[in-house]
Design goal:
Largest sheet of chain B: 6 strands, mixed
Order of helices and strands of chain B: HEEEHEEEHHHEHEHEEH
Number of strands of chain A: 0
Radius of gyration of chain A: 22 Å
Strand content of chain B: 15-25%
Order of helices and strands of chain A: HHHHHHHHHHH
Oligomer: heterodimer
Low-confidence stretches of chain B: 4-11
Mean pLDDT of chain A: 91
């Protein structure tokens, strides 16, 4: 695929969808579902009220905090689990049991533990991002070819150096993949996380717009903004996969 | 005559690597599998020894024991009279070409073991070995951008850069195509003649062993023991259609119980 194609094709598809949306609303004459123009106006209104940027910032802050926390806990734990099979045998079933529990199921507990504060949504986002990071890191360590470790030992590297110069670079591609997945999930959970305990953020915007006056134009405006920011985050994280020193770990597209 | 004299003086020299009654048993599912049985061998400094045997006979295990990666169940390995207790940068193990680090450039790979040197000395060594293995112009390339043969040469360069006195090569050319393999053998011999390392080379390829080695150690199937040691008394460069070459090659084919016919 040529460069301009990978840019132009999705743009064309987006325009087509936008047109379909516009005429769909017009033809059906619905008064509930907003037209693209109404959504655009909604964005304008939010910007004038000064909440568009503020809400996006608050959401990004919560996701960023929960995500960073998940990385800080998840990568070390993943390395330990990957390195010590006995530890993995002991803890992995627990992880696999907790993993399928939706972060939303933790909402009541989050409120009990953290009350009405920033910590409750951050905790939910942390939970969502934590497991993919742990699992990816653990698998990364398990999959290191023994040759690499053997070479590290053979050249006389001390254990800490083997970690820094062999284990870390060897697992990096898999960890990056895990981080990308985790960020996607963290951003996915932000709406639900902001349904509780906070009065700002894009998730709050959606709930509040519906509850206070059934402003579906603002609901859809919030949804679209979440989608666009999510796309931007993914593209951003994807850039790290282009680094030459990790490129080997990703299949050529 | 001169050849014979050289052989005699070599065998009189103090052995570099000494294997004494090496045995290995692997416990598997409660059963004990005997992999190596009672292997004794002396290898002279600068000698090129091939261990030849069928796949899975335990010759790789043997090399891992000599390299210090696996503990022998019985017997011992000494190098320069010193008991081998673990891996050591003076003796470097070379795997198939997949052993190079994919996250490092050619330079990074060759410099991997040189962390104790000054950056100036390190740069000098890297440059020297890049040239020696013919990778000039590829210093900044990553392994995925190199061919199989180039990766293999890179791994040899990484090993040579730390100036070891023994090299362990475990079927290093096994994954290469037959033309590249032939070229690589020539390269290895050239490097060996330039640097005079002691080389222990594991292979299942009879032709390869007769082309490369001073001595071919023919192994039995598992548990591996030494079936016979064949001295290859042909000077390098070897004419692989000479009578002596064919004679030695066919004697090994016969030893293993293969008629050299397809």
């Amino acid at each position: 695929m040529r460069r301009w194609e990978s840019f132009l094709l999705p743009l064309a598809a987006g325009c087509l969808l936008l047109a379909a949306w516009h005429f769909g609303v017009q033809l059906t004459g619905t008064s509930i579902f907003p037209s693209p123009k109404a959504v655009l106006k909604g964005w304008g209104e939010l910007a004038r009220r000064g909440v568009l940027g503020a809400y996006a910032r608050d959401s990004l802050f919560r996701v960023g905090s929960g995500y960073l926390l998940a990385i800080c806990c998840g990568i070390p734990l993943g390395i330990l689990l990957g390195w010590y099979p006995q530890l993995a045998a002991a803890i992995n079933p627990l992880i696999q049991m907790l993993r399928p529990i939706s972060p939303l199921a933790w909402m009541p507990l989050a409120v009990v533990w953290f009350g009405v504060s920033e910590l409750a949504p951050i905790f939910l986002i942390f939970l969502a991002a934590f497991f993919p990071v742990v699992v990816a890191t653990m698998n990364g360590v398990r999959n290191i070819p023994s040759m690499y470790l053997q070479a590290g030992q053979n050249f006389g590297l001390a254990p800490l150096m083997i970690f820094r110069r062999v284990i870390f670079p060897a697992i990096l591609p898999q960890v990056l993949t895990g981080l990308r997945i985790a960020l996607g999930i963290a951003w996915l959970v932000v709406v639900a996380a902001e349904m509780i305990a906070v009065d700002s953020g894009l998730g709050y915007l959606i709930i509040d717009s519906r509850n206070a006056g059934k402003r579906y134009d603002l609901v859809v405006a919030g949804m679209l903004l979440i989608g666009l920011i999510g796309l931007a985050l993914d593209v951003l994280v994807q850039q790290t996969e282009k680094l030459k020193s990790v490129r080997w770990g990703f299949r050529e597209e | 005559m001169a050849q014979a004299a050289a052989v005699v003086s070599q065998s009189l020299a103090r052995p570099k690597v000494r294997l004494r009654n090496l045995s290995i048993d692997f416990p598997t599912d409660g059963k004990c599998i005997e992999v190596l049985r009672n292997i004794s061998l002396d290898i002279s400094p600068g000698e090129f020894v091939c261990f030849l045997g069928p796949s899975g006979c335990g010759k790789t295990t043997l090399l891992n024991v000599v390299g210090g990666f696996i503990q022998a169940t019985g017997g011992q390995v000494t190098i320069d009279g010193e008991l081998v207790r673990g891996p050591d940068p003076r003796r470097i193990f070379v795997f198939q070409e997949r052993g190079v680090f994919p996250w490092l450039t050619v330079e990074g790979n060759i410099g991997f073991g040189l962390f104790k040197l000054s950056s100036k000395e390190k740069a000098r060594r890297i440059e020297h070995y890049v040239r020696m293995v013919g990778l000039s112009g590829f210093e900044q390339a990553y392994p995925q951008e190199l061919s199989g043969g180039m990766k293999q040469r890179l791994e040899v360069a990484r090993a040579l850069a730390v100036n070891p006195d023994v090299l362990y090569l475990d079927e290093p050319f096994g994954a290469l195509d037959s033309i590249t393999r032939l070229i690589m053998r020539g390269e290895l011999l050239r490097i060996w003649e330039a640097e005079r390392k002691t080389i222990l080379f594991v292979t299942h390829d009879i032709e390869e062993s007769v082309q490369l080695a001073d001595r071919v150690v023919v192994m039995t199937a598992r548990p591996a023991s030494i079936r016979r040691i064949v001295e290859i008394d042909i000077p390098h460069p070897r004419d692989i259609s000479s009578r002596r070459y064919l004679e030695l090659r066919d004697s090994i084919f016969a030893e293993i119980g293969l008629a050299h016919k397809v």
